[in-house]
Write a structure and sequence with these properties.
- By secondary structure, this protein is of the alpha/beta class.
- It is built from nine helices and twelve strands.
- It has helices spanning 20-32, 79-82, 107-128, 158-176, 204-213, 234-243, 263-274, 299-305, 313-326; strands spanning 11-15, 37-42, 70-73, 92-95, 131-137, 182-187, 189-191, 219-221, 228-233, 251-255, 260-262, 281-283.
- It has a seven-stranded parallel beta sheet, sandwiched between helices. It has a three-stranded mixed beta sheet with strand order 7-9-11.
- It is globular.
- The structure holds nicotinamide-adenine-dinucleotide.
Length: 333
């Protein structure tokens, strides 16, 4: 395992690079490997919404202000758009573009966007002999009991299903092409800077932070002290992406902290950091079949990627506070 890759003079594609995780990755390379050549491919947002009222894509130019690499506005569902990538020879492909909204139920568009495009990207990877890292998701586990471990999946929405299918495709492709390195990262609940433009699909950390800064009592589902999630800070997610470039073996790996924390704890840590004492307001959980507990089993990620989460929930929220404050009241346009 070589975790000290020099990305200088390497050509790196980031699909979904105008989104939350992709844009953080773009800046990671720019700041740490100034001679890397980074290409962001993203459809960016337009005014179109899904039935649930959310935007069809969340990519936002504000996530990329200051980024000096190439930007290509394109749709991964459109082969002509993907052909714009033919001029490059990629050493690394980070595939993050997706419909990331877990509450979209239009199966056709989700599976087309998340699955069909993956075949096309793998063809590009094979042609270029690129190392591939792509985003899978903890949604592949549905409401399986904790800890969630790779190899046992049970998706409960089209989004989770689409990521499961991507994982199957990746495993098969890696077997058929043993020279290629293909790693899927099953992100749990990621939070941190550059998620604001995901609107109401952004993490509860920023949503509750803004409720508090509005002077409002944070609103949580009833029994929120008993609802646990594996929250992971963006810096650790970037670390996972980098370590996934030199795995012991191709495969699908969990990316979480390994430590379940409750929504109540998020609200309490935020109140401590923001020095508010607004209590908590509870309301009935409208969702049936709601996942009550997630906790990533990260033993395979540790062994095969060298992944090691470093940021506690307390530390992550503390370092995120200035950004939460900066964006308070900003328009999500
Ligand atoms: N943030 C999390 O907690 C989390 C958890 C599990 C998995 N993931 C996965 O990680 C990846 C990145 O997630 P994120 O939180 O940064 O989401 P995001 O929505 O901010 O980023 C996804 C990007 O993909 C772009 N995109 C969407 N459809 C596209 C299309 N048809 N063509 C080109 N670009 C398109 C969007 O514009 C957006 O910039 C996604 O694949 C997501 O499913 C994220």
């Amino acid at each position: 395992m070589n975790n000290k890759i020099d990305f200088n003079n390497k050509t790196i594609l980031i699909t979904g690079g105008a989104g939350f995780i992709g844009s953080n990755l773009a800046f990671y390379f720019q700041e740490n490997f100034p001679k890397s050549k980074v290409i962001v491919f993203d459809c960016f947002r337009n005014d179109e919404t899904f039935h649930n009222g959310n935007l069809k894509s969340f990519g936002h130019y504000k996530n990329l202000i200051g980024f000096k690499g190439d930007i290509i506005c394109g749709n991964i569902n459109n082969k002509d758009n993907l052909s714009l990538l033919d001029d490059y020879k990629f050493d690394y492909i980070f595939h993050h573009a997706a419909i990331s909204d877990t509450r979209v139920y239009d199966q056709e568009i989700i599976i087309k966007t998340n699955v069909n495009s993956f075949y096309d990207l793998l063809v590009i990877a094979k042609r270029n002999q690129s190392v591939v890292v792509y985003a899978s998701s903890a949604a592949t586990y549905g409401s399986l009991s904790s800890p969630q471990t790779e190899g046992k999946e049970s998706p409960e929405n089209p989004y989770g299903y689409s990521k499961c299918v991507m994982d199957q495709i990746a495993i098969r492709y890696a077997i058929e092409n043993p020279d290629l390195s293909i790693v899927g990262l099953r992100f749990f609940n990621v939070y941190g800077p550059r998620e604001f433009y995901k609107g109401n699909t952004s993490s509860m950390v920023i949503q509750l932070g803004h409720q508090l800064l509005d002077g409002n009592t944070p609103r949580l589902f009833e029994n929120s002290s008993q609802i646990f999630r594996d929250f992971i800070y963006i810096d650790d997610v970037i670390q996972a992406n980098i370590k996934a470039c030199s795995p012991k073996r191709s495969g699908t790996y969990n990316v979480g902290s390994g430590i379940p924390r409750s929504f109540q704890e998020i609200a309490d840590i935020l109140q401590k950091e923001l020095k508010t004492k607004l209590g908590t307001e509870y309301f009935p959980n409208p969702y049936k079949g709601y996942q009550m507990h997630t906790q990533a089993d990260i033993s395979a990620s540790k062994n095969n990627l060298g992944f090691e989460p470093t940021v506690s929930l307390e530390q992550g929220i503390k370092s995120y506070i200035p950004e939460i404050k900066r964006l308070h009241g900003a328009e999500n346009l």
